[in-house]
Fold:
Amino acid sequence: MSAPVEDPSELSVREVYEMFLDAKQLDYTDETLRDYETRLRQFVEWAEDQEAIETVGDLSGWHLEQFKLFRQGQDLAPTTIKGQMAACKVFLEYAAGIEAVDEMLPYKVNIPKLEQSEETSDVRLDADRAFRLIQHYRDSPTEYASERHVALELAWFTGARLGALRALDLDDYRSDDQILWFRHRLPSTPLKKKEHGERPVAVPDPVCEVIDAYLEGVRYDKRDEHGRDPLLSGRQGRPAASTLQTWVYQATIPCAAAPCPHDEDPRSCDWTARNTASSCPSSRSPHQVRTGSITWQLNSGLSYEAVAERVNSDPDTLRRYYDKADDVERLEQRRREFVDRLEFDPDDQD
Structure:
């Protein structure tokens, strides 16, 4: 940062951006902070290309609208633009708080209002395919309890976020009780909702059998840089988020358990390689596995409240963003028992 100034409005947009990231380190998890860093970087770089914007104090509502139109012209998803403009508002609220911009400027950010269909993605790991894949790994003499197998079992049967799965330690798993404890630990493995995200999650016996086999014969006995014993462990200790993500992509390549839906030969297909599994159109990310799991749990008869507690969310969020059951699924799997109660026997009528 340049030499101190008496008037904060004379700071550059980038200088205030860096101050914002520093100031929010205590408020946000590392993952949330990275999201803000990524979303705001585009705005900072755009502002630096504008001749009329020399300092943060030059920003106006017109500039904010121009930036939104600029991003819309890049054919981005509506959710991407909404997220970026929402981040700009938070950034400008900070800037207004230190008197670097006009106090009314944050209210001039035009955040798009989206339909629910625009705000959510329907891409998920369907339950039928999830069970075919899981059964394949459970029956496989070579892939049973492999890294990709255990990652899929944990992701599907807990519905947890990627960061929460990565945060699990050996002591968080209680085989006899069939429980996984998700705990918020700083600085390396925070949970999305910090201490409020801590909870025990019960898993079925077959899942515990997979975990036990993984711990006995596959897991690397390595500690992480903080001296902790991660449940999921690689050659270097606790795997990076990208590594765990790769395991899930590999686990969900459809040709593992069924013919390729894209008419590719698995023996020569580039998508079956470790570093390219995410390129397969039918492989699924950890978030898409989470979405499919939540939908399946709801279809299985669990209430919104029960599922929300298991996956560290809240019922309204599940209804709006994660519940991807179509109308037929809702009727057949959730409401049928109630419909049956509406039947009557004519012989019982007076």
Remarks:
- The chain has two domains: 8-119, 127-311.
- The domain at 127-311 is CATH 1.10.443.10 (hpI Integrase; Chain A).
- Residues 188 and 282 are 32 Å apart (CA to CA).
- The longest strand covers residues 179-182.
